Amino acid sequence: MLKSAEKIVLLAKKKSQDKEQLVLDAIQTMKTQHKKITFYSVQKTTGVSKSYLYNNATLRKAITELRDGVQPSPSDADTTETLLAAMKLELRDLRKRLRAYEKDGFYKEKYEAMRAERDRYKANYERLLGERY
Fold first, then answer.
1. What DSSP letter does each residue of the chain carry, written as one string?
2. pLDDT, tens digit, for every residue of 11-29?
3. pLDDT over 80 at 133, yes or no
């Protein structure tokens, strides 16, 4: 039969092993989700203290290796490629529109002519309105 002190020691060891496994599982999840792995991020994710992470040799080694050897994730590369493709399409559309404006080199003259015509119509309207009253 175990004494109560021995039971407490066994429970503490079990609790520590469970906590270590929780942290290792969280690190693995963060790794698969391509999240940045630091002592702070692991501490925030798991709720364990940073001192626990630093004092546990296994966890410290795992976090340090992942923190220092971070590679860009494939999802980040895919997102970057998607953004570049969208920006290239937008740039191509803007260049096309610019060429259309440049082909019609007299757009400023046309604008001024339409504005002058509007002013003539407006003056004629006001003159006719004045004659009526």
1. ---HHHHHHHHHHHHHHHHHHHHHHHHHHHHHTT----HHHHHHHH---HHHHHH-HHHHHHHHHHHHT----HHHHHHHHHHHHHHHHHHHHHHHHHHHHHHSTTHHHHHHHHHHHHHHHHHHHHHHHHHH-
2. 888 888 889 899 999 999 8
3. no
Q: Record the tokens describing residue 99, joined without a space.
A: 């060429």
32-53 core/surface letters (b: 16 or more CB in 10 A; e: else)? eeeeebbbebbbebbebeeebb
* Measured CA distances, 95 to 84, 110, 113 (Å): 16, 22, 27
